[in-house]
Specification:
Shape: rod-shaped
Number of helices: 8
Largest sheet: 2 strands, parallel
Strand order of the largest sheet: 1-2
Strand content: under 5%
Oligomer: single chain
């Protein structure tokens, strides 16, 4: 009973803390899936995984054929011949199991690659979430893709799209600045060519007048 009272006090305190702050929710898995750079990296990883699976399947087929052939020919093999064939089948089986573990095991290449896949995007997403949180005065932001069960969520508390829009936002300023600079340089070039043509024309006119006087 005493433990229940302590738990009740803790829940009331926690509820009070949460209600005192404006809270928002985002789905980082959804955000990642919409980022073109992440999608490209994920596609490359999936292509690599498919290649690994194909390689293992080829070895497995080879193993099944060799094992079946060995069983069919076992009565014809004696001594070192039998031992050699058994060793080949056993070595191939060991190779396949080692490859499967190295590629798809708990600490395998696939899991490590998937863990590392999000790292280049973590800072970008964090900065975008921080910007959205500051702009909307959020005291708490939860990630519903991070093992958090959200049974019901009003749309106004979901800031996923706002974070995604910020990440996908095309600033446009650089393009306009570049365009502006190119237009300025183009105008200056035209003016310079005009001045050059006028100066050349003036020089030719002076030369003609000089020749007339000399004649």
């Amino acid at each position: 009973m005493k433990q229940f009272k302590i738990l009740s006090v803790f829940l009331l305190f926690a509820t009070g803390m949460l209600s005192a702050q404006k809270m928002g929710v985002v789905d980082t898995n959804y955000i990642l899936s919409k980022l073109p750079q992440y999608k490209d990296a994920e596609d490359r990883l999936n292509a690599q995984i498919t290649a690994w699976q194909t390689e293992i399947q080829t070895l497995q087929t080879d193993y099944d054929n060799k094992k079946s052939t060995l069983e069919n020919e076992r009565v014809l093999l004696v001594g070192d011949q039998l031992k050699q064939r058994e060793k080949e089948v056993a070595d191939l089986d060991k190779k396949i199991k080692t490859m499967v573990n190295n590629r798809f095991g708990a600490m395998g290449e696939m899991n490590n690659a998937r863990s590392n896949l999000t790292k280049p995007f973590q800072d970008q997403i964090w900065n975008a979430i921080r910007t959205v949180a500051d702009k909307n005065t959020l005291g708490i932001v939860l990630d519903k893709s991070n093992n958090i069960s959200v049974i019901f969520l009003e749309k106004r508390y979901d800031y996923t799209d706002k974070v995604l829009d910020l990440l996908l936002k095309n600033p446009g300023n650089k393009n306009s600045d570049t365009s502006r600079k190119s237009n300025v340089s183009s105008d200056e070039s035209k003016k310079e060519r005009t001045r050059s043509v006028k100066e050349n024309g003036a020089l030719r006119s002076n030369e003609k007048q000089s020749r007339k006087k000399m004649n």
